[in-house]
């Protein structure tokens, strides 16, 4: 029973827009990133602390470290490789790891997090990673966006959350049927068929989860003390629209992750694209640039992305291959 439950929870997170790209318009960039490392490092919430409070899976540029000081460290110049399929993207993307606890003896094992597999021939198919989206507005009269500046970072979600927060729009889950295993289901994420919590029934096709970041920026601050106040969700909806409040007037590309997660999930983002690359892609969306098929960007072979890894800076067993008696760092189960 333990192995069956673990295998169910560990199924690949599916692609939210597998069936909806043409219907909604070619207004998002989508690509897979392989796993760079799994460790207790978090330069946003616990800068300089080794180890940090809990385990993360990190993807992207291999200059990732515990400090990542804004401006003085630009991943696009300090990284020698990226685990993402787009070779000009050295940004770092990281999410909290989820652990399965055995009902037999109480031990823990880390649940694998993966990029999407067989939705098209270019997304990664391996144990580890994320699928990343950069989206323009899906509605409105102004579809233009302004790309973030070097040093920009943000956080969404709350690692301490154990119940649904009022107005929370950042995290959602979908329980997939068996015939949706490879397609990820149809329709946009965080619709009425999705839930804020883990599904409460078995999901034969796996659990598709989505982390959505704000799409409005104050245009001045690369970060804020809480890693949130400098950005804002479009009023009324988490998904991209063209309306931003006067306090955060700059419409930025909306970043979205596909990941396996729960109430306490959160996602961290640190901008690290080569100069001008992301803006070129966003300007080309809706013409001949869609998903990974974007002539203004360079794709690298999947093998290059998979081979871009980084040794743990906080060296410890995080339960990827073994069962642990307690969560890394002794973090309490809540």
UniProtKB/TrEMBL annotation:
The keyword ATP-binding does not apply. Keywords: Signal. Transmembrane segments: none annotated. Residues 42-260 form the DUF1996 domain. Residues 1-18 form the signal peptide. This is DUF1996 domain-containing protein. The lineage of its organism: Eukaryota, Fungi, Dikarya, Ascomycota, Pezizomycotina.
């Amino acid at each position: 029973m333990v192995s069956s439950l673990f295998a169910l929870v560990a199924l690949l997170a599916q692609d939210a827009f597998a069936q909806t790209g043409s219907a909604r318009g070619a207004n998002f960039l989508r690509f897979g990133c392989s796993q760079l490392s799994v460790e207790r490092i978090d330069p946003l919430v616990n800068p300089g602390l080794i180890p940090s409070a809990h385990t993360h899976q990190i993807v992207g540029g291999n200059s990732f470290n515990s400090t990542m000081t804004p401006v003085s460290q630009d991943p696009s110049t300090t990284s020698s490789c990226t685990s993402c399929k787009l070779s000009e993207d050295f940004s770092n993307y990281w999410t909290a790891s989820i652990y399965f606890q055995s009902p037999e003896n109480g031990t823990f094992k880390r649940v694998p997090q993966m990029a999407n597999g067989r939705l098209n021939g270019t997304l990664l198919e391996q144990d580890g990673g994320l699928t990343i989206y950069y989206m323009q507005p899906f509605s409105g009269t102004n579809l233009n966006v302004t790309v973030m500046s070097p040093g920009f970072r943000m956080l969404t979600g709350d690692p301490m959350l154990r119940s649904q927060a009022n107005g929370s729009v950042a995290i959602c889950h979908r329980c997939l049927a068996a015939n949706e295993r490879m397609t990820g289901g149809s329709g946009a994420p965080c619709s009425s068929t999705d839930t804020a919590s883990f599904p409460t029934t078995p999901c034969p096709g796996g659990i598709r989860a989505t982390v959505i970041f704000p799409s409005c920026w104050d245009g001045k601050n690369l970060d804020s003390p809480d890693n949130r106040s400098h950005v804002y969700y479009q009023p009324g909806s988490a998904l991209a629209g063209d309306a931003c409040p006067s306090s955060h007037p700059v419409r930025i590309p909306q970043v979205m992750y596909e990941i396996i997660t729960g109430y306490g999930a959160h996602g961290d983002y640190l901008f690290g694209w080569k100069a001008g690359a992301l803006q070129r892609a966003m300007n080309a969306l809706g013409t001949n640039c869609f998903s990974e098929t974007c002539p203004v960007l360079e794709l690298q072979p999947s093998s290059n992305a998979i081979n871009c890894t980084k040794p743990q800076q906080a060296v410890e067993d995080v339960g990827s291959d073994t069962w642990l008696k307690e969560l890394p760092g002794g973090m309490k189960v809540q």
